[in-house]
Structure to design on (248 residues):
C-alpha cells in the first residue's frame, strides 16, 4: 500500500473547512482513493436523503454506480443492509450458491463484480450512508484493508458532519439533499458530454472533473454551466496539473 497516498487521503478527507468545499467532489475523491488503496476494482457511496431513503452520491466507475442504483431500486443488497444495521456487510462470492441477495448477485456478476464489502458511514448512532467496495475476483477483502476502509469512511463521515455544523444556516438533511441534487446535475452533464464527445460516461466525468480542478471551480458549477449552455465550447484545451499524479 502507498503510505504517502494513505496519509494524503486522511488529510484530504479531514480538510472540509475550505470556503469552496464541494461535497460531490469530496465523495468522488473518497471512492477513487478507496480503489487505489484497498485493492478494490471500484467503489461507491450512498447517502440518505431527508426522508431516510438511500440515493447514489458518488462512484468510481459507471458500473459501480449502476450497481448501487440497482440495490436501491430493488431494495436488495449489501449496502442497504449495511446502512440499516450500521455494521459492515460482506458478500465474498456473488457467483456462489444460496445467495442472500439473488437479484443483486446476478446483476453484479454480470457487471464483472464477484465480491462486495459495504462499510457504514457512521458517527456513534448516526448513520448517513455507506461506502461500498467492489472487486472482480471472489474472496473476502484483507482484514487490514477493511480496517483502513472503515477508517476512511469514519473520517469522511466526521468531516461531512463537521462541515455542516460549521455552516449552521442549513440542517444536515438539507445539505445532504443539496449534495444529492448536485449529483443529478453532474449526471446530466456527463450524459451530454459523453454524447457530444462520442465517449463513455467515465471519460466524460473525468473531463468535467479535470476542467473543474484546472480552473479552480466547483465540479457542480462546471456541470451546471455545461447543462445550461450546451452549445458552448467545452472543454477548452487543458494542461496537466503540475506535481505528481492525483489518483482521484
Amino acid at each position: 500500500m502507498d503510505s504517502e497516498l494513505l496519509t494524503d487521503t486522511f488529510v484530504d478527507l479531514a480538510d472540509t473547512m475550505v470556503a469552496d468545499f464541494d461535497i460531490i467532489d469530496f465523495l468522488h475523491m473518497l471512492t477513487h482513493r478507496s480503489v487505489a488503496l484497498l485493492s478494490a476494482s471500484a467503489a461507491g457511496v450512498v447517502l440518505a436523503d431527508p426522508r431516510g431513503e438511500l440515493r447514489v452520491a458518488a462512484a468510481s466507475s459507471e458500473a459501480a454506480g449502476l450497481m448501487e442504483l440497482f440495490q436501491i431500486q430493488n431494495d436488495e443488497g449489501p449496502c442497504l443492509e449495511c446502512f440499516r444495521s450500521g455494521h459492515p456487510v460482506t458478500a465474498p462470492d456473488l457467483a456462489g450458491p444460496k445467495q442472500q441477495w439473488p437479484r443483486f448477485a446476478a446483476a453484479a456478476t454480470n457487471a464483472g463484480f464477484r465480491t462486495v464489502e459495504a462499510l457504514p458511514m457512521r458517527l456513534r448512532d448516526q448513520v448517513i450512508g455507506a461506502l461500498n467496495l467492489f472487486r472482480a475476483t471472489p474472496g473476502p477483502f484483507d482484514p487490514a484493508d477493511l480496517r483502513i476502509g472503515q477508517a476512511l469512511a469514519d473520517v469522511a463521515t466526521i468531516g461531512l458532519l463537521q462541515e455542516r455544523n460549521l455552516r449552521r444556516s442549513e440542517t444536515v438533511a438539507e445539505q445532504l439533499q443539496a449534495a444529492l441534487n448536485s449529483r443529478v446535475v453532474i449526471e446530466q452533464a456527463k450524459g451530454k458530454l459523453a454524447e457530444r464527445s462520442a465517449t463513455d460516461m467515465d471519460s466524460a466525468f473525468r473531463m468535467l472533473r479535470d476542467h473543474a480542478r484546472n480552473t479552480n471551480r466547483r465540479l457542480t458549477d462546471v456541470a451546471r454551466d455545461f447543462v445550461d449552455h450546451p452549445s458552448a465550447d467545452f472543454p477548452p484545451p487543458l494542461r496537466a496539473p503540475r506535481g505528481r499524479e492525483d489518483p482521484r
Residues 211 and 236 are 8 Å apart (CA to CA). The chain has two domains: 3-168, 180-228. The first strand starts at residue 42 and ends at 48.
